[in-house]
Amino acid sequence: MTPLSILELVRVTQETDARGALNNARDLAAHAEKLGYGRVWVAEHHNMAGIASAATSVVLAHLAEGTKTIRVGAGGIMLPNHAPFVIAEQFGTLARLFPGRIDLGLGRAPGTDQLTLHALRRPPEAADTFPQDVMELQAFLAPAAPNQRIQAVPAAGTEVPLWILGSSHFGAMLAGELGLPYAFASHFAPDHLISALEIYRSRFKPSEQLDRPYAMVGVNIVAAESDDKARRLATTQQMSFTNIFRGARGLSQPPIDDIESYWTPMEKAQAMRMLARSIIGSLDTVRKGMGALVEETGADELIVVSDVYEHSERLRSIELIAEAGGLPRTG
């Protein structure tokens, strides 16, 4: 059985405000815990009306407070936007509040547009020091050395596990060199999935955190009682991706009967390239799709995006995905 986790988008919909999105995310995390999922992550996004996870560490505290055992983490923090010292303080605090349950995935992309990047007071060239920033952050989370003058309080000694996130070969090489677990974002950038995993595994050097490669693969999965129903539910995500190309990021939209009436042939080609690894269908269809993906990639874990509009339908989707993956229910 391959472990399954969830990447929670904290979607604000046309019928749910930001508070509702945050509460739905917390409810989904509690539901996922009972279904046997190993972790639930949220990602840092800024200046996006349809995503309520900008203050990522605060959102994680909200989710962790509503659960008991599931790991809660960032998938990820866009480190160039922040001083490593501050991120160490935030996630060290989370680790003190919820010991043994916090993950910290790190990305190099800004997670926003250039104008918002300026508002964050981080220069575009900040991404150039990403490897050094990762190591600095790791040092702040390690036990403090004698007479160490600068300590990230209360983070020192928490040793929050770090992950490298990526959608290209750069992250794969860095994760391998540093001996860290690697998560590939094939839920929106599938083109380099196989080659990135090969690079990561071939470059891997054992570290104090990890003695062998550990690769997690991101995948969009929408599950329902029938293939037709799942395909209809999946139109919500397809419209979201189409809107990205239109420069019209907004609130999550309810599913529609005919997606062909929504996008142009060019928009369809662009969106479907990004969504090429998606698995959409009934329990049996999802079971086969997940099995094929694990066999092809050798993934140690799958992290699932189930971008379904109605909260009740999304809960049902992750139930079916858990069943397809053979997860042992805990409640």
Overview of this protein structure:
It is a single chain. This protein has 331 residues and is α/β, with parallel strands linked by helices. It has one domain (4-324): TIM Barrel. 42% of the residues lie in helices and 15% in strands. Strands 1-2-3-4-5-6-7-9 form an eight-stranded parallel barrel, surrounded by eight helices. The longest helix has 18 residues, at 18-35. The protein is globular, with a radius of gyration of 19 Å. It starts with a strand and ends in a 7-residue tail after the last helix.
Secondary structure elements and their pairing?
Elements: E1 4-8, H1 18-35, E2 39-42, H2 56-65, E3 71-78, H3 84-97, E4 102-107, H4 114-119, H5 130-141, E5 162-166, H6 169-178, E6 182-184, H7 193-203, E7 215-223, H8 227-233, H9 235-246, H10 265-274, E8 279-281, H11 283-297, E9 301-305, H12 311-324
Parallel strand pairs: 1-2, 1-9, 2-3, 3-4, 4-5, 5-6, 6-7, 7-8, 7-9
Helix pairs in contact: 1-2, 1-12, 3-5, 6-7, 9-10, 11-12
- Helix/strand class: alpha/beta
Number of domains: 1
Strand order in the largest sheet: 1-2-3-4-5-6-7-9
Q: Uncertain spans, ≥5 residues at pLDDT below 50?
A: none
Average of the residue pLDDT scores: 95
Q: In which range does the helix fraction lie?
A: 40-55%
Structure, briefly:
This protein has 331 residues and is α/β, with parallel strands linked by helices. It is built from twelve helices and nine strands.
Q: Descriptors for this entry?
A:
single chain, 331 residues, TIM Barrel, 8-stranded parallel β-barrel, 12 helices, 42% helix
